[in-house]
Each structure stands twice: as structure tokens, then as C-alpha cells.
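User: Um, any thoughts?
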Amino acid sequence: MNSRLTERPKKRNHGFRAGQSTLVRVASTHLPTVFGIFDLISFERANMAKRERETALVMTPGNLRNRAPLLRIHSQCLTGEVLGSLRCDCRGQLELAMSAIADEGSGLVIYEYQEGRGIGLMAKLKAYALQDQGLDTIEANEALGFDADCRDFSLAVAVLHELKIRQVRLMSNSPRKVEALTKGGIEVIELIACEAPPSPYALPYLRTKKKRMGHSLTIM
């Protein structure tokens, strides 16, 4: 394993004291996948506002010495990645990124637990039910009292700084990720499309993201 990624054991306190926001490497291991063997590193950070712990996983072939590694910031999608849902393209995007990073032999996926663009699994299913009634994905979120996109990418930025990565080639279609990285002091020197072949069931969702959220997609 690259020495830069070696786990650093730290004394941990599970209380939520004022000002506690230190990023902690929890564990690291090897993960054999269909795309190759990745180093898997887990991080956590206290979120004082929500009184909870934010967690993220880093998957990398182990080589981050490139000046600007490939990066995919990916939000959990249990329905797509575990249950095989065709209502979104999340699983396809994750597999596309892992394959590209494995082929290059360098890069990382930062996998964050922000189901349903940050509203959580139960609320996401409620939003699906509203979409069944004719609302688009943004209208459904707003009908439930949420913003169109509730995700916070500051944890991903903190992980990149911890790994001493200052420049990336970002695999994404989302302008919000570029903005979050730039504001966090990470330079995006190249934006690479991460567009998986869409299912017909996902087309309304993807068209809404393109037309109303500014995602760079080739679909019409």
C-alpha cells in the first residue's frame, strides 16, 4: 500500500464537544473487485450541527502520485447499486468510474453516504412515490420540504486535503461538484463526463437533471 495512505491510529473520542470536527482515518484494507484490487480507506468526521458522524470511503488502486488523479465523488444509491433499480444511472456511473481508475492505475472514488441527493432512503422512496404521480425529481423533493440537492461535499474536500491532493481530473456531470471542490481549494484541471448508458426508466430523471440542474448530459 502506498505509504501516503497508511492508516494513522488516533485516540478517538465519541462525544460531541463544541468545535469537534477532526477528520479521522478509521480503517484501511484491500478490496478485490471485478475491476481489480483497490485499497479501501474509511474516514469519519463529527458534524456538530446535526450531532452525527459523517462517513466516507475512499477506493483507490493505491497510486495517488499522479499530479492530478482521476476523481469520482459518488453518493450512495442503495436502490440502484444494491437492488438494481433502473430509475437512475448511479450504478452505471460508479462502475464506469471504477473501471476507468483501475485501467489508469491511479485515482480514487470518494463514496459518501448521501442517499437520494442527501435526503435519506426513506424520504427518497417518498419522493419516488410522488414521481409516480407525475412530479419530477426536483418537484418531489420540494414537496417533501427539501432542496433540489441537499448534499454537502465538504467531507470529500477534507478527505482530499488529508490525502494531500490539490488538483484533480473530475469524473462528473454536476456543476455543483466542480464549485464545491474549487471553493474548497481543490483545482479541477479537467472535467470528464461520467455518463452511463441510460435506461428508458431513467430518462425523465436525467432530463430533469440536465434541464433544471445544469448537468452535462448528451441525452435529448
Q: What stands out?
A: Confidence is low (pLDDT under 50) at residues 1-20. Residues 90-104 form the longest helix (15 residues).
